[in-house]
């Protein structure tokens, strides 16, 4: 995963753990959070910006 990648974040929709909602965003920044772990700052299509562990994100399209 790198800056500029288009990513999906699959979050449970409401309180029903069976249904999931996907949010799409672009990776703005990466930060090492441990020896082998990273977090990504993501700008979502609704304008929200949030940090996530990269393990919970799926790359939809890698930047060139």
Quick description:
The chain is an all-beta fold.
Low-confidence stretches: none
Mean pLDDT: 86
Order of helices and strands: EEEEE
What's the gyration radius in Å? Answer: 12 Å
The major beta sheet can be summarized as:
5 strands, antiparallel
Beta strands, count: 5
Strand content: over 45%
Task: Explain how this protein is built.
The chain has a five-stranded antiparallel beta sheet with strand order 4-3-2-1-5, with no helix packed on it. The chain has no helices and five strands. With 64 residues, the chain is mostly beta strands.
Spell out the key features of this protein.
5 strands; mainly beta; 64 residues; five-stranded antiparallel sheet
What are the SSEs and their pairings?
Layout: E1 6-12, E2 20-32, E3 38-44, E4 49-53, E5 57-61
Antiparallel strand pairs: 1-2, 1-5, 2-3, 3-4
């Amino acid at each position: 995963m790198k800056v500029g990648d288009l990513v999906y974040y699959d979050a449970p929709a409401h309180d029903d753990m069976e249904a999931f909602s996907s949010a799409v965003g672009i990776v703005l920044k990466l930060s090492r959070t441990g020896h082998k772990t990273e977090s990504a700052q993501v700008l979502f299509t609704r304008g929200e910006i949030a940090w996530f562990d990269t393990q919970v994100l799926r790359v939809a399209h890698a930047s060139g």
